[in-house]
Amino acid sequence: MTGFSPSTIRRLKKLTQIPCVWEGDRRTLLSPVVSEEFELPAGECILWVDGSEGVIRSMEVMGSAQGREAMVRTLIQAMEHPQGGNKRARPQKILVRDREVQFYLRGILQGLDIVVDYSPELPLIDQIFQSFGEVMESYVPPLPPKYAEDLTKKAYKIWEMAPWEFVHPNKIISIEINKWDIEKLYLSIMGSADYTLLFYRSAESLTRFRTDFYHSYEESEHESLESAFLQQDCLFLTFDPIDEDDEDLDTEDEDIGYLPSSEIEPNFGAIHPLEGLNSILYEEEAQIMYVALESVIRFLRDHKRPLSQKDFPVITRRYRISVPDCDQGNQNVSVNICTMPELYSQLYEIESADLAEDDFDQIEQLRYDLIPEGCLLSIGTIPWNSLISLPPNIRHLGGHKIKAKCDTIPIVLVQTSRAKANTIIKNIRDAGDIRGICFSTIDSDQDGKKVDLSILQTQNENLFLITEFSHEDENYIASHKRWKRACHLNGGHCGLVITKGLSNKRGNPGIDDIMAFFDGKCITSQELNIKFSEI
């Protein structure tokens, strides 16, 4: 049996010993315990309480594979790092209701002057776990257990398909179910940092929300925006980053589309004008969501190419969906799914009617005279070591404090002739260097295909178009995801690299060809206050 080291015993004996009795026990939580005060997952719960004061000293939930050592670790926490602002202390006596644990603790705690006794009942702990049981009885999980795994798998499938990359939010898809009191759902696929699937219960709710939203947005009325949001009647699936505590990830502004599915958490819920926002799907809603997601996955898989075009053709398909039901066996549901070109046109008119004149002024402010014609442009990464080796007169950091977490930094690379490179560098220097680089997704009015405008903002707030990248280019899509990932790892930093050698090293410049490196921030369309979606 492993015991404490002499130094640990000396450290613990320095704690004031108080004339009190602590209770300790380990019990199984079959379900999560969620209350206003705390949230505990299912598992083995170890609890140490001060029976004299009636307070919890330490509490921890762990897997069943943990041995009796876990009881000791939690007891040490109760002494040295008690919960609830209690003072550090060493008890005079402890009670447990397991004989084996009693004998084990007696051996471990030798030298600490703590009496270890057995008691078949632990009144305070019994009372606490009874209250846990009452909380568990009232707990409603976010998804019904028998649908949770299947719905989560389908949600991750949606994330991997990334339909927001080829389906515009105005391209509404109708899902006719005719079951569970639902005739049709109207799906809107949101991207551009929202990454949400909205399944409206009526077309009226969809159009009313869009009208109210654009009006409130243009008037900058926060309360009206919130009211419009809560007036929706829909089910939803949204995606959020798992690591929300990461100080470098601002979930309000940063595009999370580059994250792999392992770093994404799907969340389901419903909105109703009379019920508000609810982050829980009950059984019938879960069944509806199951059918809707499965039919949408099949539809997107079968018709990705036509859905990607500017025109929104009429596409109709029928699918037979098998819904797992633990009580009645699998149910087969026949689903009709089709595109809605007329509603697409209606939503476009709503959007266009609310496009304010200052948006057009903003479009005119986007300048095209920074990057000359004939330059070769690309995105990628460059090793930090290579940048550090550059002469100081080539590195323009703009006073930014760079916090790198990886070996490379994402860049936009401009390769041109020496003369044109000098002109670009001079113009940027005259503007105070760069503030940042933004990628804004729009629909081209020429063919309706999605393109990303790469926009550079200088310190004097001028906006320059660097170039545009087509979403049809799979190499660009893959590179852009890596680029955004690298931005995140570098604390939101990116760079603009100007190189010479267009004639003799076309597409393959070396470190010696770099004439300037400008450091900036990865910025969003929202930060630039760019609200137009089509040029």
TrEMBL record:
Q: Start and end of every DUF7309 domain? A: 150-255
Q: Which organism is it from?
A: Cylindrospermopsis raciborskii CENA302
Using the record's annotation, list all stretches that form the DUF6930 domain: 8-132
Q: Which InterPro entries match?
A: DUF6930, DUF7309
Name of this chain's protein: Uncharacterized protein
- The superkingdom listed in its UniProt entry is Bacteria
